[in-house]
What does this fold into?
Amino acid sequence: MAKIDLKSLSLDELKEILVQIKDKPFRAKQIYEWLHVKLVTNFDEMTNIPKQLRERLSEISEITNLTVVDKLESAGGETSKFLFRLYDGRVLESVLMRYHHGNSVCISSQVGCKMGCKFCASTIGGFERNLTPAEMLDQIYQIQRISGERVSNVVVMGTGEPLDNYDNLVKFIRILTDENGLNISQRNITVSTCGLVEKMKQLADEELQITLALSLHAPNDNVRQQLMPIANKVDISSAIKACEYYYQKTGRRITFEYSMVEGVNDLPEHARELATRIKGLNCHVNLIPVNPIKERDYRQSESKNIQNFKNILEKYRINVTIRREMGTDINAACGQLRKSYIDQTSV
Ligand code: SAH
It folds into this structure.
């Protein structure tokens, strides 16, 4: 029988386990604290837990840990990229970004991705598997342990489509924001989706205070279909309606991500069309100069075109920022580091 994945359990589930093995439920809180506050990686480190209980726990459960394969630092020291190995040998990547307002970690939610967005490196090798809540948490825990720096913000914008791994994602968020755990504020968490509408609505109903980001990347279905296969199934207006619903339910401002690809989605008419679609919605547009990947010939928009796009949106009174590029010298675009590692090791 498979062992229980201890780090993926909520505090209540952990209490349940202790009841089942006829031990004291108050031990659950201690164990939970070892796992999610003190960030230990094995039972031996849980010094206030009786040896007998530790042995019993290790018979029925396990603590899965990520191990570091590689760590790259950007030239300015503001970005670190981590390549981690999972217990089954698969690899994933996470990024630590140091801002004035605190440290932000960008985590992966799946190994590989099935969404197939044309400009994204994460999708090239296809989908391998979902990450468990423990594996999502451990990206943050390991980075905090290794860097010795506190993580205050988390963005689920690495490899994978988080809403395609919905139950594990929600569990991960609840543990990460639990006051008995690392206690990261829900308001400091952003989940980015390519637009799985039903799951967006379900997330709205969870009563979480996290930010939802929609990867829009286009002002109309036609342009979106050229970049994102999901656009053949979900039209922009239903994705935007799901965002409106999310805002109604949570009061959280929506983020629209818009990666700027030269000649494809960066024309002034695209900015005007986008503005007409989203004006009136409490939102924020994040313009991302597309990070070219070697497998595709998309080019980044020129900075004057990005600036012009921004000016047009602002004329419509839309909040907009241009995302500062960080870590391009260390393959920091989604999936690039993992991809180059797999390419190197498989030859
Ligand atoms: N599956 C989620 C998370 C993906 S990564 C989603 O689709 O939102 C986070 C963002 O980075 C998405 O908006 C994604 O479209 C974008 N992205 C991926 N590769 C990129 C690249 N090479 N250049 C710029 N943005 C990219």
